[in-house]
Structures are given as structure tokens and as C-alpha cells.
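Just wondering, does anyone understand these C-alpha cells?
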Amino acid sequence: MTGAAPTLFLSDLHLPPQTSALRTRFRRFLDGPARKAARVYILGDLFEAWIGDDVGMQIYAAEVAALAALSASGVKVYFQHGNRDFLVGEAFFDLTGVERLADPCVIDVSGRNTLLSHGDIFCTDDRPYQRWRWFSRQRWAQWLFMRLPLSRRQKIASELRSGSDTAKRNKPENIMDVNARAVRLSMAQFGVTQLIHGHTHRPGTYAVDLPIGPAHRIVLPDWRDPVCDYLSAHQQGIERLPA
């Protein structure tokens, strides 16, 4: 590849709190391909669980340091909250130099206006999850949670993960995917013909029918050792590469 530095996209790494190959691969990515990029966009669920900056930045100290080093090198890094790490807060952004990214938002990708999202906002058929998403994003709910004792926060997070895994097993597959109408409405609202998101763990490129013309949405790959891929956007297009 020649020309301008690429823009990289990744999501759904679900880095565990314990030492793992996934965490090693992510730090290697930050020290390698990411250093040659102009911008890096992390579209949510970087961490398996984040119950507050006071805990998260200790558990993930190595990743926080690597992100800070990448930002200090001149690479712009952006982070969008996911359903697993929506409590990533100001201390994280201040220490790492990573910039908070609204969900959804529009950026230029290789000369094309592109909508970015973690993706869970489009899963509107899963109504219980959408109710939980609304509640968990309320400032007052987060304020109350952060004032609980650490042991209580850990217990709640564990129960939520367990409940989420059980719910997924009992839900039809289509409910956990995006709703086509929700996707079309959002893309039409923002006037874009390209959408990049994660969350669904269904990587690929999917056609979207819009009144303004042909469009598509690109679903980012989730990381499952040994397959840990990201997307690289450059002048020639977008390609999937291994981390």
C-alpha cells in the first residue's frame, strides 16, 4: 500500500481482565500497524467489562499505557462506548489521550461520508436489551452505580454478564441482529451510503436499499483468538487485515 496513512477500525475485542493472548495481540497491534495509521477508531466493547475508571485502569494498565503511547506518537485515536464498556470515563480519556466519539457519528472515510456506530442501537427487535441500554446510559444511573462498594459493583457486573449470556442463548438469532428498517432510517437521516459498525459479531459487507441509491453496511469482525482482524481504509478502498 502506498499513499496517505490508512484509517483503522476495530471493535468487539472483549479483552478479559486476566492475562490472555487477546490482550497481547491488542498491544502488539497498538505498537505495530496502529503506529503507521493516521487515525484509529475503536467502536466499542474493547473491554469485556469496565466497572469504573478506578478499577479498569488498574486491571488494564498495560493497555492504557499502550494507548497513551500511541496517542503521544501523533496517531489520533477515537473510542466509542459499547454495551460492555459504557462506563469508560473521563479519567481514561485524560490519561490515554484518546478522544470520545459520539454514537452514531459521521466521518470521512476515503472521501466518503460514513456513519460509525457500535451497532447495538440498530438491534431494535431486542426490546428488553434496548430498555436496559437506555437505563444504563442515564447519568443518574451511572452516578449511583459508581458510588456502590467495589465488591457490589463486581457482583452486579458478573450477574449482568451471566444474565446476558443466558438471554442470548434463549433469543432467536434474528432478534440479536440489526433491524433493517432502523439501519435504513439512520443512514437516511445522516445522508450517508456507508455504515461501519460492530456488536453483532457477524462480520461482512451487507447491501442496504436506500432511496438515494445503493448503500452498504460493513460489520467489523470480533476478536476470537487466533482470528483477530481489523479494517484498514485507504485510497484504494477498505480491506480486512490480521492484527
Notes: Helices lie at 21-31, 53-59, 61-72, 90-96, 127-136, 139-146, 150-170, 180-190. The chain has a mean pLDDT of 93. DSSP finds eight helices and eleven strands in the chain.
